[in-house]
Amino acid sequence: MNDFAAHESCCIDDGSCIGAGTQIWHFTHVMSGAIIGRRCTIGQNVMIASGAVVGDGVKIQNNVSVYAGVTLEDDVFCGPSVVFTNVSTPRSAISRRSEYVATRVCRGATLGANSTIVCGHVIGAYAFVGAGAVVTRDVPEYALVVGNPARRIGWMCECGIRLDRFPASGRVVCANCRKAFGINSAKDVCRIDE
């Protein structure tokens, strides 16, 4: 008995693992060896490859391919047509399946529509990649990045609201949810538990 819901047009291969409460929409392919957590929403025309790992509570919008070597931790959001890669130097005539490069999108991160995540990088927890951005290096936790190549232009709260500029005290409180943040020794933002 399946504890998940999948539209009849989906192709769910034997040997895939799909968590309870997950919903999978039209024309999606989940390959053998793919792992999808609980309470996920997988949009239309999505492909989850063997060797891909999708955590709990992940939302993947339409037209996304999650390739082998890609890990989406809990509560990640992938906007429509996000692009992942898994080989650094692809060639049609040369098999590079033994050269897949891992990509990790950490808990709570958001990947905007049409963003491209070049393989081999880590998107930090609660980071926010703007629509159309091309990620060519690691993105720090809570960072807001945009452009091609993606550059940090600010910081984001866990609730998805942009944080105000940090004053001389190095501490800011989210105007929406009142969580406090500070600058750590690496000049990155970190949450301050109060």
Give the key terms.
194 residues, mainly beta, nine-stranded mixed beta sheet, six-stranded parallel beta sheet, globular
Structure characterization notes:
The protein has strands at 5-6, 11-12, 17-18, 23-24, 29-30, 35-36, 41-42, 47-48, 53-54, 59-60, 65-66, 70-72, 77-78, 83-84, 103-105, 110-111, 116-117, 122-123, 128-129, 134-135, 143-146, 151-155, 171-173, 180-183, 189-192. With 194 residues, it is an all-beta fold. A nine-stranded mixed beta sheet has the order 1-4-7-10-13-16-19-21-22, with no helix packed on it. A hairpin with a 6-residue loop joins β23 (171-173) and β24 (180-183). It is globular, with a radius of gyration of 18 Å. It starts with a strand and ends with a strand.
The beta-strand count equals 25
Please state the CA-atom Rg, rounded to the nearest Å: 18 Å
Element pattern in H and E: EEEEEEEEEEEEEEEEEEEEEEEEE
The number of helical elements comes to 0
The SS-based structural class is mainly beta
Provide a compact summary of the structure:
The chain is mainly beta. It has no helices and 25 strands.
Q: Layout of helices and strands, plus pairs?
A:
Layout: E1 5-6, E2 11-12, E3 17-18, E4 23-24, E5 29-30, E6 35-36, E7 41-42, E8 47-48, E9 53-54, E10 59-60, E11 65-66, E12 70-72, E13 77-78, E14 83-84, E15 103-105, E16 110-111, E17 116-117, E18 122-123, E19 128-129, E20 134-135, E21 143-146, E22 151-155, E23 171-173, E24 180-183, E25 189-192
